[in-house]
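Hello support,

Our group uses your service weekly, and this is the first time we've seen a run hang past the timeout. The protein is SDR family oxidoreductase. I'm not sure whether the cause is the sequence or the server load. Input pasted verbatim:
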Amino acid sequence: MHVFVTGGTGTIGSAVVSELLGAGHTVLALARSAGSERALKEAGAEVLRGELADLDVLRAGAERADGVISLAFGRDYSSQEALAAGIAEESAALKTLGEALIGGDRPIVTVSGTPWAPGRASTEADPVPTDGPVGQRGRSVNALLALASRGVCATSVRMPRTVHNRGEGGFAGLLAAAARRSGIAGYPGDGTQRWPAVHALDAAVLFRLALESAPAGTAWHAVADEGDAVRDIAEVVGRRLGLPVETVPEETFGPFGPIFAMDQPASSAHTRETLGWQPKHPSLLEDLENLRP
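Update from on-call engineer: The timeout came from a worker crash unrelated to the input. Re-ran successfully.
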């Protein structure tokens, strides 16, 4: 299969490109910069230059492909306004990619987050939130999945709060970055809230499986660790960086503060049983041992 990939140089995307190529697929990848183009070509992908906001470029990439994996997202998380702008850009991109595939029964796999379920681990049957700070993202994913009725094999892989590789990435990576800036390995609340996690290399396998075999209109959970207590995560970060571990205000983490403070465990039992996905790489707490001061 010739696959068009956006976000192919990120923590998840670079692993997905490698996984696809290793499985015998070919890849056409969107590149925003000369550096991204270089990295993608070195990995063995064909490159299409453009930004996520270049909707004509996205449409052309989708039209050239047998399938699409959409991973790109803005990198500015400094404020609620910046986060909202990134979500709006992603929403327009998803709409464009989905419409380019109408009527061809070609697959498109997009990324979203695992939902929150009060008092328990969320499952694949739980809906993604469509209100709150990231509600637009949920609405966009739902709109894409609804294109199944128009001949698009659209599926969603829901990612946990931390996607990690060599100790970096995801919410745990943001926590470590905040610790380096402030000199404190901080966590909001009492630290008992749980974050699910997955190694990027395991997540990449699930994206490939969804692309190859998932039915249209379905959602899957890329969850290896159902939920690590945030305080436990902060303690490993503090020990690795040589910093004190303390509770800090939610505002320390900007627009993610309220999300960081939530208890959000998630299950992937249905995904494992149905698609045969089996995570094999180190857990989050094990991988954080690779953090460098």
